[in-house]
Amino acid sequence: MPDSDLCSYLTYPTWRKRSAHARRIASLSVREKRQIFTWMRESHDPARGHDLFMPKYGCTVGEFCTWHILAKQVLA
Asked: How many CA atoms lie within 13 A of 45 on its CB side?
């Protein structure tokens, strides 16, 4: 979907935020992604949910998972 179509459904600030998250997560190395997944397996408390913030990466667990899956779908 072209960016112009996406902008018509979202407000501009929301679109900018999501675009920044998508670029940041897509730019992570495989090593960084593996470190995040290892951390989630070993220490993530499911009771805290997907809103747990990861300051090193500037996103929540839920945002990381969403954009990781979407990036895999686009590249497949």
From this structure: 4
